[in-house]
Amino acid sequence: MLTVIKGGRVIDPGNLDGVMDIFIKDGKIVEIKTDGSADSGYPESKTIDASGKIVIPGLIDMHVHLREPGYEYKETIETGCRSAIAGGFTSVCCMPNTKPVNDCKAVTEFILTKGREAGTARVYPVAAISKGSTGEDLCEYGELRAAGAIAVSDDGNPVTNSRLMRKALEKAKEYQLPVISHCEDFNLAAGGVMNEGAVAAGMGLAGIPNVSESIMVLRDIALSELTGAAVHIAHVSTMESVRAIRDAKTRDVPVTAETAPHYFTLTDASVKGYNTNMKMNPPLRSSHDREAVRQGLADGTIDVIATDHAPHSSIEKSVEFHQAPFGIIGLETALSLGLNLVDEGILTLTSLIEKMSTNPARILGLENGLIVGQQADITIIDSEKPYRVNADTFKSLARNTPFDGWDLRGKTVLTMVGGKIVYQDQ
Ligand SMILES: [Zn+2]
């Protein structure tokens, strides 16, 4: 059967922007027309009225934690994917810090099988850089690539040994696996629970300095320059990191970077109430850092907005601030927080879509875009719709969001993966 998405404003960065009809058959886009001819000639078709809405390539979140295998009480692949499609994401890339760590073919295949069984968002496993993510021995990249891993990362842990990181970059390049780097100097960050600065001092909490991130960003840029291998910097939170990446890009070092909505929305001032849903790693930084991250998004230094969706159970988060685990969820609020940047004139709608779909696809080598012949991964959004965030209604198993009760604007209306409608807003 033919499906027609009719009358929406279709935006595919660098390709399309205008009111068009998209024709979908057998999971693929078969035609895109501007002349309203969807009215005739296709009697068997199912029509989705998208008038007044925006039709975009499905969002891709290149940094999520789905917690399965091993921590199914926090989130499962199925619940994480349901959260993803509710947020407009048609693809998610899941980090390897599960139990066991995704450092071998068996775990990668398990994740892919579970993802297929869930049957909603596409799940792309990110395998570990080192066995057990302990930073000692490299994983078998050829085997992981063949099994379906799309990148490698020891996320949650830095690769402290620079010699091992050099080898990882060289080896990963051979197998065309991008390396995603969690930049943190554990010795500098040791004991810290929030951003180092006046707020932490006032609260009597141990701080994590900006330099614990940027020193590793600078190292990874140096190693990328040495090896010619691409490195992607995860969750950029500091002014110094933005500066280092901007400078590296002017020298054509193959570095790319992501930040997360909380870093361009919140600051460490939000930690003042000791709300453990304001605790993540890297931590919320100063207003200068937030400004630098926004500037980095605006000028293209930061290529991607990813969520670093990190589910924890309410029991784990209902403890003293210094004891709570790091991490917050983000799949169901990311789009609205991104649209805030459009309202504020920091990004255009097109550049927001680039950062949430086109660029992650380019970095990871995934199929993407509203192009005839491509798989129909499509998100329809209402960019104006106001709503109040209610964590109790989240599809995620977790509730650890700092944005509960916030009034936001812009919602996913419909999510389609491979031509199949997997989510529709009620
Ligand atoms: Zn990380």
Name its key features.
13 helices, 8-stranded parallel beta sheet, alpha/beta, binds zinc ion, 8-stranded mixed beta sheet, globular, 426 residues
Give a short summary of the structure.
With 426 residues, the chain is α/β, with parallel strands linked by helices.
3D structure, described in words:
The structure is a single chain. This protein is an alpha/beta fold and about 425 residues long. Helix content is about 30%, strand content about 25%. The chain has helices spanning about 75-85, 105-120, 140-145, 160-175, 185-190, 200-205, 210-225, 240-250, 260-265, 285-300, 315, 335-345, 350-365, and strands at about 1-10, 15-25, 30-35, 45-50, 55, 60-65, 90-95, 120-125, 150-155, 180, 195, 205-210, 230-235, 255-260, 305, 380-390, 405-415, 420-425. Strands 1, 2, 3, 4, 5, 16, 17 and 18 form an eight-stranded mixed β-sheet that branches. Bound molecules: zinc ion (ZN). Zinc ion (ZN) binds next to loops.
Give the beta-strand count: 18
Bound molecules: zinc ion
Structural class: alpha/beta
Q: Helix count?
A: 13
- Quick one: biggest sheet? 8 strands, mixed
Shape: globular
* Mean pLDDT level: 97
> What's the helical proportion of residues?
25-40%
Unreliably modeled segments: none
Radius of gyration: 21 Å
Instruction: State the end-to-end distance.
Output: 24 Å
**In percent, how much strand structure appears in the residues?**
15-25%
Write the layout of secondary structure elements.
Layout: E1 2-12, E2 16-25, E3 28-33, E4 46-49, E5 54-57, E6 59-64, H1 77-86, E7 89-94, H2 105-118, E8 122-127, H3 141-147, E9 151-153, H4 162-174, E10 179-181, H5 186-189, E11 194-195, H6 198-203, E12 207-208, H7 211-227, E13 231-233, H8 239-250, E14 255-259, H9 261-265, H10 287-298, E15 304-305, H11 314-317, H12 334-343, H13 349-364, E16 378-388, E17 407-417, E18 420-424
Bound molecules: zinc ion.
Zinc ion (ZN) is lined by residues 155-156, 182, 234-235.
